[in-house]
Amino acid sequence: MADNEGNINAKDFGIGIPQVNEPFFLKGNNNAEWGMKSRLAGVFNPKSGHAVMLAFDHGYIMGPTSGLERIDLTIRPLIEYSDCIMCTRGILRSLVPPECRKPISLRFSAGSTILTSLNEECIQDIEEAIRINASLLAVMVAIGDPDHEGLTIRNLTRTVDLGTRYGIPTLGVTAVGKNLTRDARYLAMASRVCAENGAQVIKTYFCEENFEQVTNAVPVPIVIAGGKKLPEKDALSMAWRAIDQGAAGVDMGRNIFQSDSPIGMMLAVRAIVHENASVDEAFAIYEEYKNR
Ligand code: R5P
Fold it and tell me: Which of 178, 195, 228, 251 is the most buried (most CB within 10 A)?
């Protein structure tokens, strides 16, 4: 028990040495509260400033998606290669072991499927996110969708309010509907609207032209979705160009779990995102693992 008896006199006060006062490493989040920064620093690697997120939440709108039929068999072996997993609470509880120490990006908005109108969504209870110790709250935002824009921005705004109360950052996910384009002008607008409404991280799509306009238009980190399955080298090239043009990481699903070597792709994407590997170097990593 601490007492004054035999107490060593405190004298090493470092007089003349300014107290360490480092800015937070992630763009736009320096003024966030400690708990929020702590969660963000769990998702994004403080050394590289980047993150490889593994997305397998597709079933909430698509049902048993190809590659996700048996998440226990296909996704569980990949988790250790990710910095963060993105999934629904149903899959988390059913198939992700609680021993998993990876940060969780919880699919926080849901409500309709590909069979009807996408983006007719509501959000979950914040207590649910606290209960499962979520590190990000992922909310779909459908900018330019005349039927759902207002609803999804309100979902985002409410999520930011709730997340801020408990130190959990919000991941604004820009939806791409049938009638919405994927050019830099649209993606910059959609991403910027999410950030203006308080999202601490944005997930959007890569575009072939002027993607740096998207990353520069937004004051917080952007991670890219992978989109539909591409040949492996094309997917790696997309990841490389996204990072090169200012993305802070990837939140990739189908281009990982629909690959003929999902672990090979995880390793290759990690090399690009964290180690600045070239596309050829990363592709060699993928091929080497695949041919073992
Ligand atoms: C969309 O928001 C889905 O929730 C997925 O998380 C997202 O599309 C990323 O997966 P993919 O890389 O397959 O596009």
Answer: 251
